[in-house]
Amino acid sequence: MKNLKLWVFLAAMPVMGFAQELKGSDPIPFDPNVKVGKLKNGLTYYIRKNAKPENKVDLRLVINAGSILEDDDQQGLAHFMEHMCFNGTERFPKNQLVDYLQSIGVKFGQHLNAYTSFDETVYFLPIPSDDPAKLEKGFEIIEDWAFNTILSPEEIDKERGVVLEEYRLGLDADNRMMKRFMPKVMYQSHYVNRFPIGQKQILENFTYDKIKKFYKDWYRPDLMAVIVVGDIDVAEMEKKIHAHFSSYENPKNERPRKVYDLPNHKETFVAIESDKEASGSEVQVMYKDHDEAKPVVTLDDYKKRLTERLYAVMLNKRLRELTNSPTPPFTYGFSSHGGTMARTKEAYQSVAMTQDGKQLDALKVLVEENNRVKKYGFSQGELDRAKTDFLTSMERSYKERDKMNSSAFVGQYQANFLDKEPAPGIEWMYSYLQKVLPQISLNDINGLVNGFVKDDNRVVVITGPEKEGVKQPTEQEVLAVLNAKSDNLKPYDEGVIASSLLRKEVKPGKVTKKETNAKLGTTTLTLSNGAKVTYKKTDFKNDEVLLEAVSLGGSNLYSTNDYLKTNWAESGLPDAGFSGLKLNDINKFMTGKIVNVRPYVYDETEGLRGSSTPKDMEYMFQMIHAYFTDMNFDMDAYAGYEKKRKSMFANMGSNPDTYFTSELLKFTGKDNPRFTPMFPSDEDWANTDYELAYKKYKERFANAGDFEFFFVGNIDDKAIEDFSAKYIASLPSTKEREKIVDLGIRPLKGEHKKIIYKGTEPKSKVMIRYRGETKYSPKEDLAMQALGEILTIKLVEELREKESGVYGVNVSGGLGKVPYGTYRFTVSFPCGPENVDKLTESALAEIKKIIENGPEAKDLAKYKEGELLDYKKNIKENRTWVSNFRSSYSQGENPEDILTVEEKVNALTAKDIQEVAKKYLTKDKIIGVLMPEKS
User: Fold this and answer.
1) Closest alpha carbon to 111 in 904, 873, 860, 812
2) What is the pLDDT at residue 9?
């Protein structure tokens, strides 16, 4: 077996970094590339130099305190405190902190952010590192967050409205059901009473001293970590940490930082919950460990965790195979052993998303698969494949060790501080994995299930929609499934492992022409069948090659009747597999290979999108060839796909937000003969023709000569030439060249207001849309995008900070070129029903100000700083380049325009933005409003 040979070869490789025999009791080392220290006051710090992205540093302040530590009269104040850190500190009064950071290109929400959970509060601050003054300001900010937040009564009262709006966002079906089942999941645990969002009455009425007490008690050096990772000098950063944090002391008679547990229970608890607004059906079974969770400290601990992960990989592959069957028992299924809400408790959990009323059937399958492992264990082939995949993944991380983004490291050190998670570094992990994986046997794996699955300390949670015709199971039925015997179970069927992705002989073509573009750094190969391959070699990633293949035409070339019959089937076509191989066959063959290719048919284009490693690139080309020439036609596979999609879409309209968007789209698309809703009805499925969709797909991919293939990444010239000649030049082609077709369908014109009633909670949403036809202009497109960013800043200031009426605002705009010139601009925000009219008027007033006066200079400067910071980061990402090639080709634009973005952003004026606001935001406006159902 090919994969087994690969595994044996890897296992025999010399192991780096282990000159002497390791003992299981040896401690896991800490990454030597990280400077770790602790100040005298107990504050911990982590510093690492990392060059990606360039001239940027990620600062993070981690507080080992969250909502679990709140007193009864403080419920919600850990989270409220997080908000207050952005509303006035000693160095940055009121909203000056956000204002300053926006002025240096740090976007609020997108870059600058924070979160509060049960056990921690974490603040994120990515800033430029190439300016000493900005870097110093960054340290001043995290110092002020830690110790110098002002907490003025005025700002606290202003922020109440914002936090209550965030509270409002959580009033939904999932929240209601969770509140009912969580007392069983977290039985007799303090966590049940300390959800971070808190209690509404407390948020509305708490006295100022309560939040000041929380800040004083828990924001203290011995519960803090400062993490600094980026393009910096380590010694200099250590000096800054000492300078900014050494002088602070822990409070006298400090409160103990208590750790709360999750008690064991002999009972099996069953929670069966439903809600009229539930958008899906789910079942979860949780087997809590008897013992407290122990930190992973020694090599034996690490090996045990690795063994558990191999177990999960193998079991989840089995579950995935079931979801790929013609009669899938669930849409999605997953099992794993890991953490719970409580730091002291781990559990083995199995989860499945199901059809309405089928949770009991799904539970039966989950239980049976656990019992199958108990009775027969896993096979050696399964373990070999799991080990190979593990090592392949780790090898990729090892190859990318000098190309990792700083954000990836920051999370590791945060977990080390909070949960004592090991952080030995990728070099050590890769070396150790090569040594320890061969030592893990089937007996090690198969023995785990007896400790995972037990008859006590377990909880089953079933959730789903409350609607006519859907019968919920009883507790007795659930217990009967849990306790059923497994006498009739058969061993897992390994099946036959495929030997190739292609079953037909490939007759290579050739490269007939080769051109280069020095500006873009690209090479274009013209192939003997007319197809073109353009590739760009980069050093952004060591182990990544991205693919975008595109052809003009798309489903706009279908008749309206054919379009409506095929729309819902097209995305399911790849589920049939290719070359006579089913999805499960392909997945097994691809063990140890990192490759992904997916075809698509959009309205104006068809194509393929994919990725691979350099060493696996040939398999990516083979998949391209197979999707063009040998896609399977499989009614059974399509039946399984349709069943899963029906299950997924069945109740999406029960969610008020989703229903609102769906109904608004129906309203705006009412004159469109090809309109398709957000989710299909039973009638839509009945009208869907899989055979026709397959036929249309074959037509769209019949002429490879009408495709352009773009590859970006760590590419070998000879390899891509050889693969292009063999697998792409050999594809069928004709001389025909298609273009994008404009069907003449246009957006709804005029002024409209649509009020949609859905939901029982006091929640509303406002959407203001401007859309219409125009002549495309790249300059206006950029100005509209800038207008969206600037209006976001203004509406956050007005609707959130001044009026305390919203938690967040989304604004975006731009112009499109195909199939005809369009403009679009959307403003949306959630709010209370009582504030809809007032906040809508405020939003329109801000738009009017820009129409009449243009944007303020400081806001335009903020946009430019943020945009240029993002550009400098994105221009060194493979995804940016391959997307640019695809969009430039499909829109008929020059791909070299990506090189002049800085120039164009800098040249943008307030007048340019005012002009597009005048031109496009004074006509054809649609206001959609979501309101609760009338009682």
Assistant:
1) 873
2) 31
